[in-house]
Amino acid sequence: MSAEVMDWDNAYRGQGGFEGPPPWNIGEPQPELAALHRAGAFRSDVLDAGCGHAELSLTLAADGYTVVGIDLSPTAIAAANQAAQLRGLATASFAQADITAFKGYDGRFNTVVDSTLFHSLPVDGRDGYLRSVHRAAAPGARFYVLVFAESAFPAEAEMKPNAVDEDELRAAVSAHWEVDDVRPAFIHANPFLGPDAPDMSAHDTDDKGRIKLPAYLLTAHKC
């Protein structure tokens, strides 16, 4: 199952072909992005693009940031809104929208964060996405993208996102943003379980038993 055919709302409702929670739903921010947060890399307001259950948004809001999360899945957005209410996080809000064509936030955000969204988009949706988040960004805004590298999944895998190589990533993002850096990184994922799950045994695991999948972390800015 590729990113082209994945039914994301089904995945968040537990009907996406996985046994257990979706592999990307690790219950906390991705460690690479949590490290950026600890280093003070984010500035309010923050756009969490493709927020899912929004653990990054919720963590930032708990630390005083104003955050808007956008996701295509109404199930994910409902869960994120409920979590924000339960935690008393008034500075986190969430909206269901197509991230490749959303409007209404022109020039608002000083930080845009993409936590494993880019590779989940159809390839022909990338430019619309990058154009849309650029429009929503304020001058000087920072853009962080955490995305699977091509080596993350075996070639024969049926459940395979639209992973990238470094040149492909740079070329796509630089059409709208000034790219500052691309470095190797990891995406941490729950074990892939289910009849169509790829064999991920070649990869290391972290101290919580999650798979560490090769990725890139791109940093860019808006002039």
Automatic annotation (TrEMBL):
<dbReference type="GO" id="GO:0008168">
    <property type="term" value="F:methyltransferase activity"/>
</dbReference>
<keyword id="KW-0489">Methyltransferase</keyword>
<keyword id="KW-0949">S-adenosyl-L-methionine</keyword>
<dbReference type="GO" id="GO:0032259">
    <property type="term" value="P:methylation"/>
</dbReference>
<dbReference type="InterPro" id="IPR025714">
    <property type="entry name" value="Methyltranfer_dom"/>
</dbReference>
<feature type="domain" description="Methyltransferase">
    <location>
        <begin position="45"/>
        <end position="165"/>
    </location>
</feature>
<keyword id="KW-0808">Transferase</keyword>
<protein>
    <submittedName>
        <fullName>Class I SAM-dependent methyltransferase</fullName>
        <ecNumber>2.1.-.-</ecNumber>
    </submittedName>
</protein>
<dbReference type="InterPro" id="IPR029063">
    <property type="entry name" value="SAM-dependent_MTases_sf"/>
</dbReference>
<dbReference type="Pfam" id="PF13847">
    <property type="entry name" value="Methyltransf_31"/>
</dbReference>
